[in-house]
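Subject: complex prediction, re-run

Hi both,

The earlier run crashed halfway through, so I resubmitted it with identical inputs.
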Amino acid sequence: MEPIIRIEQLTFTYEGARRPALKEVDLAIWPGEFVLLTGPSGCGKSTLALCLNGVIPRDYPGSMEGKVLIGGRETTSFAPGELAGIVGLVQQDPDSQLCTLKVVDEVAFGPENLCLSPGEIDRRVRWALDAVGALHLWDREVYTLSGGEKQRVAIASVLAMQPQVLILDEPTANLDPRGAWEVIDVIDKLRREEQTTIIVIEHRLQRLLPLADRLLVMEDGTLGEGPPERPRAAYPAKPPASITKEPLLQVENLTVDWEGRRLLEDVSFKAHRGEIIAIMGDNGSGKTSLLMSLLGLIPPREGKITFAGEDITSLKAHVRARCMGLALQNPNHQLFARTNLEEAALPSRSLRPGGADEGEIRRLLGEFALPPERLPFTLSLGEKKRLILVSLLAYRPPLLLLDEPLVGQDDDRIGELLAILYGHAAAGGAVLLVCHEVALVSRFDRIFFLEEGRLVIDAPPARAWEKLCALGRREYLEGWSWDD
Amino acid sequence: MGRLGYVPGGSLLHRLHPVCKLLLLIIYTGVVWTNARLSYGAGLFGILVISHWAAGLGFMGRSRRIISFSIMIFLVQTIFVRQGVPLWEFSLGRVTLAFWSGGLAAGAASVLRFLNTIGSSYLFIATTDPNLLAVALMQAGLPYRQGFMLITALRFVPLFQYELIQIRRAQMAKGIDLEGLRPRQLAAAVRHLLIPLVLSALGKVDSLAISMEGRAFGLHPQRTYRVQCPVSTADWLTLLLFPLLLYGLGRILG
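This time it finished cleanly. Structure:
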């Protein structure tokens, strides 16, 4: 049997880059194999995926040496679009790869381009949607779908091409545990029932590793066979910090509506100095809305917010920002400046008494391995998130509101970020942080769990996990053991 | 009028071929702008109201902006057109305002022209599935690359609206407020608004291009469609009878 994918001594350097993104990569993948590809952010995993579907070197300028053969034929010999029926790539962000208005049209898009008959197109659409368990979404408008549903539709739209190789680039990165398990079930079903060759690029391995035939580890552009040389570092426990009796933040009966939809309903809680609180819940349950409402970015319908004993409910966001710093889930929305240094100093200019402290900012940038003069938009997702955090730490707001800050970070970086957050709490600050990593948030003081805009759990981790099980939300704890 | 967009329904207007509806809109708008008679404008408005009702859509009274803009058009016309006989005159300090019979007629005709144009466009948008319109246009001969420019533009409009809101919120989170800024600060704030939006758009275009090419877009000079949009007898009859209706109306009201 011939390998479906063979890579020989592949080296690729993006135009203008000093170092190659891929270095002398050799690889053979056999039909029906399920390969898991992992490695730190920015190590070249997505570049390898783009080489496999022929987009590199055709659409990305750069120098390429070596060969990529699909079914024994070099990718450079295929016309644009010709590889579509052989290699299918599902990218990380489903929102930007769906090009039509309805689910059925999205899944039919590929087969229509192959000039198939209407009957065959219909058959493939049904089969692909059924394969990902999304037949019920048939007539839905794309913009009304949840993150997990969009990801399933993105997979179905590629499956409808009936590719021999399916590549999924971080398919669960933006999903809540329920959505992530749904996608993993789809991958498992395809592996078992369709014998599709599957390559999944992932940071978080524990859920997918049991299904994979092989683990490949990429580091700084070079590829090696797993398991990773270094076992996952244990997350450091939070050192004891003195938690004040008086709350730093008090929220009473907060109800928030937006465009006719209820985002939060009757939410009440207290957060104290020294505390780190994790916020969990499904996509759309109100986690981001809660953080935004605390800062005043979404006006409340009812309720009261008190900060350090002062009622701030009527204060505008740019005033509240002096006492609470928010990092949004998508860092691209928060980057405005030309250099990392300028970006990190931006909030300090308007929010820190005395303006920006350049020495302190340079120190923080160094601590987070961010070159001061680099253009922020060229950073990886994980680096961008770290830059936003630096910009907040630079003006030292007592309360940090962080929306998924750990997505895109490798284990070493997560350890460093935790140390920073623990330091912030020890210095008398508080942190509210959206995160679904149970092994990690078990180190924190409290867990909030939101369901359809309601705060249904507010408890220390051990008690919170019991309550989650009682709510029938065991999927949040799967792939994790108490020993973690 | 409600929010601008397709309103699903099963009325005859909803079922008509999208290209047929586009032709009807062109004919109707052409007649509106080439005929200035007040009575004819009122007749066309009557057809429009009946069509809205038949399509299950509300018409006037739903949009304050349309009403206020109509009132403004009417007032401007009645004040500045001085033809016919003077009906009423009054002074505001040094300024004397007079309403003439010709001004009233011109104001009413302008308002009707405005309502007929806006109303018919709204009716077209509200009864035509944009995806189906693009497919129908492509099946009628529009090159499919152009057709998909329309579809992807429609797909990304709500996405970019959402992004703009998020970027604005991110600015406020960084202590930047657009209210009360001096012109120079405002220019910097707007720059901060546009840079992430443009970069985000470029990133999405990149991702979209990979996704579309990865699904064989552009591989063949032609493509097939899951849904067919055949022109029915009802479409042909409507195309034939509608101009006759407008002609007949013109004869009666002329």
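The radius of gyration of chain A is 24 Å.

- K.
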